[in-house]
Amino acid sequence: MGVLKSLLEITITVYIGYVCIYNFVLSIAGLFYRRKTLSKDELNTHFKRRFAVFIPSYKEDGVIVDVARSALSQDYEADNYKVVVIADSLKAETLKRLRELPIEVVEVSFEQSTKVKALNIALDKFKGLYDAAVILDADNVMDRSFLRIMNEGHSAGHKALQGRRASKNESNDLAVLDGLSEEINNHINGKGNTVLHLSAALKGSGMSFDYELLRRNLAAMHSVGGFDRELELRFLQEGTSVYYLPDAVVFDEKVEKSQVFQNQRKRWIASQYHYLAKYFVPGFEALLSGRFSMFNSAVLRNIQLPRLINLGLITVMVFLALVTHASVMKTWLLLWGLFVISTLIAIPRSYINRRLFRVILSTPRLFLTMFLLLFKLKGANKKFIHTPHGSQ
Q1: CATH fold of 47-257
Q2: Is residue 179 within 8 Å of 166, Cβ to Cβ?
Q3: Which end of the chain is more exposed for a tag (fewer CB within 10 A), N or C?
Q4: Are 322 and 316 in contact (CB under 8 A)?
Q5: The sheet that has 207-210: what strands, in order across it?
Q6: By the 8 A CB rule, do 47 and 121 touch?
Q7: 7 vs 2, 282, 303, 326, CA distance in Å?
Q8: What pLDDT digit, counting tens, does each position of 155-168 carry?
C-alpha cells in the first residue's frame, strides 16, 4: 500500500511539474512572437490566391444566412474568393435565402453527420478551381482583412495557417471565461509554438490551407470529433507545420449555457485522448528520428488535462501539502506560481478588468464540473455532438 501511494505521489508530481514548466516556457516564448511582413513591393507583386471559404452548417438555420452574408465583405478581390455553405439538415426557407446570395450552396445528407464528410464532398466538388481553402464554423465572422492576411501568410511559404479566434459575445460570465480560455490557448499554443518553430495547434475553424494539401489529407480521414487534431498530425507526418497568424481574426460565438459547455468540453476531451492513443507510438517514433514538432503535437500537448482542471489540481495539491507534507510546500508553491504566471502572461489586456475577478470566482465550480466530465467520456468520440449557435 505504501509503495502504491509513493508511486501515485511521484506520478502526480512529475505530471504537474511537466505541465507547469511546459506552459511557462511556451507562454514566455509567446511574448517574442513577431510575424514576418511582406514589403510594399512584395505586396504589389505577390500571387493573389483564389480562396474557397467553406462553412459547414449542420442545423444552423439561426445564424448561417447572416454569417454567409458577412463573409462576402472581405477587403479582398471578389473574383478571387467564393463562399461555400455546406448545408446539412437546413430548412427549405434557409436554403432559399442562401441561394439569393452570390455564394455556392452544397447540400449534403448523411446517416451520421460529421464535418469531415461534409468537407470532403465540397472539396471534391471544387477540386482544381481554387488555390487555398478556408474552413469556418457556422457562427464565425471573419474580420474584413482575414483573406488578405491569409494570402500574405501563404505567400511567405506557409501551406497551413491558423488564425486567431476571438470572442464575439460576452453576454454572461461563462461566455467571458470561454473567450478567455480561447485567448490563453492563442498565446501558448499559437504564438508560443510558432516562436519555438513548433506546429501551432489547429482549432477547427479560422484556418487556411493549400487546397490540394487539405483535400488529400481530409479524404483519408474518418474523424467524428476533433478532426483538427488529426489533420494537424497528418500534416506533420508529411513535414508540413502549422503557422499561427494572430492578425487574421475570426470572431467566434462563445458558449453561454452550462449544459452546452459540458457537452462541448466532453467532446473536446474525448477527441484529445482518442488521438493521444492513436498517435502515441508515432509521436515517440518521430522524437527518435528528430522530428520534435510531431512529438510535441502528438504527445506533449495531448497528454495534458484541460487547463482549468490542471489549475484546480495544483491548487488542491498546495493545500494538501500544507496539511500533510509541509516539507514539500515550497515545491508546490513554486509549481503553482509558474502555472499562474504563465496563465497571466497569456491573458490579453482587454480582459483585465473588474469582470475578470468575478469570473475567476466561478472557476472552482467549473473545475468540479470539468473534473467529473473525465468520468463520462465513454463513447463521446464515436458520435457527433452538435454545439448549437445563435445567441448573436
Answers
A1: Spore Coat Polysaccharide Biosynthesis Protein SpsA; Chain A (3.90.550)
A2: yes
A3: N
A4: no
A5: 104-108, 81-88, 51-58, 132-135, 207-210, 160-167, 242-252, 141-142
A6: no
A7: 9, 27, 19, 19
A8: 999 999 999 999 88
Structure-derived torsion over alpha carbons of residues 356, 358, 360, 363, reported in degrees to the nearest 10: -140
Q: Phi-psi category of 37—alpha, beta or left, where left has phi over 0 and alpha has psi -120 to 50?
A: beta
CA distances from 309 to 5, 172, 192, 313 (A): 22, 21, 21, 6
Tell me the sheet residues that pair with 259. none
Residue in 313, 115, 124, 132 with CA at minimum distance from that of residue 230:
115
**Domain residue ranges of the chain, discontinuous segments joined by +:** 2-31+271-373, 47-257
Closest Cα to residue 150, out of 44, 82, 76?
76
Give the 3-state secondary structure of residue 198.
coil
Residues 6+ apart with CB under 8 A from 120: 218, 219
Higher pLDDT, 55 or 36: 55
Q: How far apart are CA 196 and CA 30, in angstroms?
A: 9
CB 229 within 8 A of CB 202: yes
Q: Which of 81-85, 91-95, 178-182 has the lowest mean pLDDT?
A: 178-182
How many Cβ atoms sit within 10 Å of the Cβ of residue 180?
Answer: 21
Q: Rounded distance, CA 242 to CA 239, Å? A: 10
End-to-end CA, the chain: 55
Contacts of 93 (CB under 8 A, 6+ apart): 61
Which positions ≥6 away from 298 have C-beta within 8 Å?
233, 236, 275, 276, 279, 280, 282, 283, 286
β-pairing, 51-58 vs 141-142, is unpaired
What pLDDT does 391 receive?
Answer: 46
CA 327 vs CA 313, 316, 331, 337: distances in Å: 19, 16, 9, 17
